[in-house]
Amino acid sequence: MPRQATNQFDAIVVGSGMTGGWAAKQLTERGLRTLVLEAGRDIVPEQDYAEHVSVSRLPFRGRGNRQSLERDQFVQRECYACDEWAAKFFVNDRDNPYTVPADKPFKWIRGRQVGGRSITWARQVYRWSDLDFEANARDGVGTDWPIRYRDIAPWYDVVERFIGISGQAEGLSQLPDGRFLPPMAMNCAEQHARAKLAKAFNGERVLTIGRSAVLTVAHRDRAPCHYCGPCHRGCITRSYFSAVNSTLPAARLTGRLTLRPESVVDQILYDPATRRATGVRVIDATTRQVHEFRARVVFLCASALESTRLLLLSKPRDFPTGLANSSGVLGQNLMDHTMGQGARGVIPGFEHRTYFGNRPNGVYIPRFRNVKTKHPAFLRGYGYQGEAYRQGWERAGTGFGAEYKRALIGDQGPWMLSLEGYGECLPRPDNFVGLDPVVRDAWGIPALRIQCTYGPNERAQMAEAVVSAVEMLEAAGATAIEPFRDHVDPGLVIHEMGTARMGRDPKTSVLNGWNQTHDIANLFVTDGACMASSGNQNPSITYMALTARAAARAVDLLNRHEL
Amino acid sequence: MNRRDLLALMGTSVSAAWLQPLSATERLDLGARLQRELDAGTLPTGAANPLVARIADLILPRTETPGALDVRVPEFIDLLLTRWYSATERADIERGLADLDGRAGGFASKPEADQVAFLTTLDGKKGPKGSAEDTFATLKWLTIYGYFTSERIQREVLKNPIIPGRFDGCVPVNRG
Description:
Chain A is α/β, with parallel strands linked by helices. Chain A has helices at about 5, 20-30, 45-50, 65-70, 130-135, 135-140, 150-165, 190-200, 245-255, 305-315, 400-410, 455-475, 540-560, and strands at about 10-15, 35, 165, 180, 210, 255-260, 265-270, 275-285, 290-295, 295-300, 340-345, 355, 365, 380-390, 415-425, 430-440, 445-450, 480-485, 525. Chain A contains 13 helices and 19 strands. Chain A is globular and about 80 Å long.
């Protein structure tokens, strides 16, 4: 058997999700025979997607199999999407352990399967601007980004044009417009609130429809949304973007893609003579056999913390603390976002109107703090995700009996408007990951030890976001306003990022402005690990744009024999 | 399915005498089938507490639309009590039922008007775990949840299509 030949590729991509799919598409379309390694199982949409299964058909009617969740998914179950339909798209926590200090919980939500977390993501898509890329330099926090908006803007275009983003152009400097398909409709109460906020805040606070990777019209052979609602359970019409629905099929079309599921990478292979990555070592998840695969260029797209874990696990003599870690900052400056702070209230006046269909999207209020004027209490800012809705029977309320039942069926209840803040986290060296000295995963690979807390700047933002939400609900004419500040452990926003940051100086950063490790020219890290600051926007579109850009760069360098 | 569940199940639906002549393989097959049916939610355990059933019936009685009993809400609650709630939570609920029954002076024996009047004193009140108030709140939510997520109510009463095909943000309530 010609093992030599089958184990040699032009490029290896570790991970098949949000960024791995983009690396695969770009590298194969530019001519490279590419091996994509996925630690989890393959996904067959016709069998695995469950979005149209009625709640009535489930044993626990959507409440989940609590016994198995408590036994096998005691962390994952804290994510709303790990429900009775979609729990299979989240890892088994017993097989995939990690450790935290007893007083510093961090919830690491993961999906190990082809498509990774792109199957279950919330599909919100917001560009960064130079307000974000210049932030570290301006505030003297962390290290300066080596790129600016002009570097990434054309790649936002590339990604958005391919995956399809619905949204409304607003002309805001802090949240650049993208290449939008028609926006989804706002409902009665949301339209009302938009108009009221525009007036009350002189255009400083804008309520707009969520910018979403869900198609409102047919796009590149994918069908428009049919508004069934729960995208995170899959989509047989491929109407939202996932790697399974979009990028991996494109890569497959080139004939140059080899996708290998059940492939747990535990080492990046390194040649000290050439100072190059030569490939990766893989444990077959089912047979436990060890394989080595070789390539001219290696892309880590395994998710922020898995990619960093892989670098930490690879310790050739030249890099005793982890591959590409000559700076010593690998693992540091872990960030997530904050959420759970906001308010809700009743919007009166639309009781005789309602909505039809399940819109898989909400409304968004872009950041307005530290945009034009400096806020005295904190750096950076927060945006809001929200939604107006009628609770229907779920409001329950007081009463019981025949009349109560008629009201529960016949009256949809008041219109509610809920606004929840999503805040930026500052990079801090004391939020970090390392290898746990004892605990190993089901394949015998050392687990991560994660330490992450919110700091004073995040707490100040969270407190203020509650007040601003109340203020906006009042402006929107809401009654019965109820502020909330739910406790949310770091990690649960599932925007964990950083730990192998980009930077200008190889002494203080792991990656250069092309997502290329400073130390090893043919090793790229293009997932959330690369982030030098966190912004407050949902980050996936930025990871995808950086991946597409880095892959194009890698192929250019290969073609010029500079890699 | 654990052994306790299986025994409970058999105790209510099939007799030990009927099981006696089955071969070891047939018994295993039966166990596997019961497991599948239980996992699919198609098989009630049959152990629904009559007090739970009566309360569910009072919360959502049959009117021009089906009632809680018509869509087997007590069986759904029983499934949650046996397979979803922890032993501690289940014990709290059972203590609450005993508290409710005791304070009502034998709930089942009272005329409906008295039952309604008593439950009205509990409705919307907070109480400690194991109290009639707390258990009524739990049962009320489970009744509503089990009712509206049942196949028949989803199809005949709520009539929300699984695939609406479009989103309209602002339409009259009584449209169509």
